[in-house]
Amino acid sequence: MVVPESKDKLFHPPDDLQRDAHVPDFNSYLEIYRKSLEDPEAFWKEVADEFYWKKPATGPMLQYNFDITKGNIYIKCMEGAKTNMCYNVLDRHVKDRNLGEKVAFHWEGNSPEHHLTITYQQLLSRVCRCANVLKKMGVKKGDRVSIYLPMIPELIYTMLACARIGAVHSIVFAGFSSESLCERIMDAQSSVLVTADGVYRGEKLINLKQISDDALEKCGEKAPCSVTKCLVVNHHAVRTKGGTSCNKLQTPWDMKRDMWWDEAMADSPEECEPEWLDAEDPLFILYTSGSTGKPKGVLHTTAGYLLYTSLTFKYVFDHHHDDVYWCTADVGWITGHSYITYGPLANGATSVLFEGVPVYPHIGRFWEIIEKYRVTKFYTAPTAIRMLMKYGQEPLQKFDLSTLRILGTVGEPINPEAWQWYHEVVGQGRCPVVDTFWQTETGGHVLTPLPAATPLKPGSATFPFFGVEPTILNEHGEELEGEAEGYLVFRRPWPGIMRTVYKSQERFESTYFRKFPGFYVTGDGCRRDKDGYYWITGRIDDMLNVSGHLMSTAEVEAALAQHPAVSEAAVVSRPHKVKGECLHCFVTLKDTKEFNQKLVEELKKQVRDRIGPIATPDFIQNAPALPKTRSGKIMRRVLRQIARNETDLGDLSTLADPKVVEVLFSQRSEAA
Ligand code: PRX
C-alpha cells in the first residue's frame, strides 16, 4: 500500500484534525499497521500495558488455530492473566487517574425534559451497589443474567455490575418481542432477568414488564423457567412524562420473584470487590441472527475484548480527553456494547446516552442534542441518515453543529448520496466520515478509516484496522490480488474476535471456518479497488447473479437512491427464465413524489446508466415502507419472498412493523 493518489475524488483529512491526532497521516497508519502484523506480540503488549492486571499473562498475547483441517478452532489472548473489566473501565479512572468527577454519561431521556449527568465516581458507586444486589439474588461468577432494558443508565449499571462479579450478561434489545426474549433466556439459561416497568419510545408506551412476564411464562411452558428472580427498574413511574400518565401502565407482579430496583438498591453497599477473572473468562453473550433462523449466542471474553474495543475507540474516533462523544445505537446491539459502554469507558470518555428516537418531539431532535451537549464525535447508522435526509437541511439550520469534528457510520454500506449529505450538511464539509465495517462477531471495527490519516472515498470502509489482515477469495477459495471482488475473509484473529457460539462450538466452526479453511469468513462480499480500498458490497447471501454476472444488491440500491425521487431502495433477486435471476427493486419515494410509469422508466435507466445494461431491473415496486428489523436493518429475506410471491414467510418476530409486509404483497402485482 502507498499513500493513495487516485483518479477517484478523495476527501483528505482536515489539517486542524491532523495537528494533534493519535495517527496524524497515512504514512503513520501504514507504519503502525505494518508493525501490528509483523510483531503482534509487541503491538498488543503495549496496548495491554495501559490496563490493570491483577496477575500478568503467562502465555502470548494471541494464540490460535484458524485452520479447521488442523483441529478445533480457538483463539486465546493473554492466557494466565487475571483482571476485571469493570475495574479497568471505572476504578482505574477514579482511583489511578483522578477522573472521578469527570462526566461519564449525559443521559438524555425520550422527553427533552428528562436528563441526568453521571460522573465516573457516581457510576462506580451505582455499579457496585447493583453488583451487591445481584450477588444477594444469588448470582455468581459464570452465571448468566438477561437484561431487557431501554436506553437508561440502569442498563449500563447492570452490565458493568455483571462484569464486576464475573456474571455473563446477555442483553436483549428492548424492542424484541416476548418470543425473542424467551428464546434468548432459554438458550442462555439465565438465573436473573433485569427489566423495567415501561418506557416511552417517542409517543408510544411500551409495557416492558408485561412483555417480560409473557416471556418468562413461555420459558416455563416446557420446563421450569431458569429465571428465579426479576429485578424491575421503576423507570416509567419515576422518569417519564410524569404525573398521571404512569397510571396508564399496569405492572404485573410476582411477589416471590420480582423486586423493585429502587428498593433493592436503597440499602445495598457502595463497595464491592471485583471478581478477578481469567483473561479468557466470558464477558457477555449477544445474540445475532443466523441463516438458519435460530439466533446465535456470540460469546466475547474479557481481556481481548477490553484491548480491542478500547484501542479501536481511541483511534477510530481519535479520542481526546475533552471530547463529547455520541453513539446513537442501542446498547442492545453490539455497537452499543463496544462503542457506548466498553470502548468509551475504557478510555475515560464522556458520552451522550440517548433514550429516545430521532424525530421526537420534533424532527430536529438529533441536532438539538448535538448542540445541547456540544457533541464533538457523532456515530450513527446510514438508515438514520437517510431518514433524516428526507426532511432536508432546514431542521439542522436551527442548531449549532459547529462543535462536530468527526462523524461515523456503521451497520450497512452507506450509499454515496447519504454519505455526501452526512459530510456536507451534518459535518458542514469539515468532518471526516469514518465508515466502520464490523460485526457482532468481530467485537470491534475491522475495516475503517482513521479520521486524520485516511483519505476517504464515499461508501468505502477503506483499510484494515491494526492487527487485522483481510483478504478476498473467489468461490474456490483462491486468494484474489489487486482489483478484485469476492468473499471477505480474515487470515488471523485480533484480540476482540468472538470465541465461540454459546454452547455450540460446532455451529461456530461451521458458520465461520468451514467454507474456507484457514480463514474467518465474514459472510460479506467485498471489492478491492485499484487503490487498495475495500468496499463492502453486502452480504454474500444478498449477492445477485444475473446472466452469470455477480453483482451486489448494494450497488443497485445506491444507483436507485441517487435518483432525486427516491428516499430508500432495496433490491432482491427473483428467478428469471433466461437470465437465471433478475432484479426486483423496492423503492420508497420522497414525500411528495408520485410512483408512475415514467418514473419506473427513469429508474431503470438510472441503474442501466450507473452500472451497465446487465443490471437493468426487471421490476420496480413502490414500497411506502420497507420491512426492517428494530435496529433498522432491511430484511431482504422477506423482500425476496415477496418478490417471489412466496406467502409462507416464516419467523417475522424481528420485524419492526409487520404491516409493511401486507402492504407490499398487496402492491406486488403493480410492480413494473
Ligand atoms: O453486512 C455487514 C453489515 O452488517 C453486518 C454485521 O451486522 P451486525 O452483526 O448486526 O453488526 C452491525 C454493527 C457492527 C456485516 O456483516 N455492516 C456493518 N457495518 C458495515 C456493514 N456493511 C457495510 N459497511 C459497514 N460499515
From TrEMBL:
It comes from the Eukaryota. It catalyses: propanoate + ATP + CoA = propanoyl-CoA + AMP + diphosphate; acetate + ATP + CoA = acetyl-CoA + AMP + diphosphate. Pfam families: ACAS_N, AMP-binding, AMP-binding_C. GO terms for biological process: acetyl-CoA biosynthetic process from acetate; lipid metabolic process. Keywords: ATP-binding, Ligase, Lipid metabolism, Nucleotide-binding. Residues 99-500 form the AMP-dependent synthetase/ligase domain. Monomer. Interacts with TFEB. Interacts with the 'Thr-172' phosphorylated form of PRKAA2. Interacts with CREBBP. This is Acetyl-coenzyme A synthetase. It comes from Oryzias melastigma (Marine medaka).
